[in-house]
Amino acid sequence: MPDKSLPNDTQAEATELMPVHVDHLIANGELAAENAWCVSYDADTLPEQRPAFVPLALWQANQDDAELAPLLTSDTELTAELAQQLGQSAAIAVDFPAFTDGRGYTIARLLRERYGYSGEVRAVGDVLVDQLDYMRRCGFNAMALRDDQHPEDALRALSFISVRYQPDVEERQALFERRLAADK
To answer: Which long-range contacts (CB under 8 A, 24 or more apart) does 33-38 make?
Structure first.
């Protein structure tokens, strides 16, 4: 609850730093019964709510806390050293500050394909229903929907496309390659 004694600018800033707990989480293609994880964008203070995704530097400073996981911004430079460090976490959240910012797709794909990360990769932030299939194809296995998105629409969107022409993290061969292999 915002503090009414603070000026409006300070109220907005304080509200931004409060941990976010998303109601609608799609995990492994299904609506999750509950979402235990909150997302904190505060880079200076550990949230009281746990478990929590926290900014990368804060997670790195508190890696011994099993109830914390890294929150990667879309401009995170994913190096081999960082990927090795992230491999110790059971979950990683990638922030989508705007639905038009596609850098998070690259982060997920690199985590899965180049660095072999096998834990949960969760999309958070401005996550829309029409992005979900692309997110899954890039390696996200959990997506926290924006508040105005309906989970029923999300589940339909994930099952709408049954055949894909291009390869992705789930299907490594293009459709023509699969067809050629089947003809042999």
So the answer is: 35/144, 37/69, 37/91, 37/93, 37/122
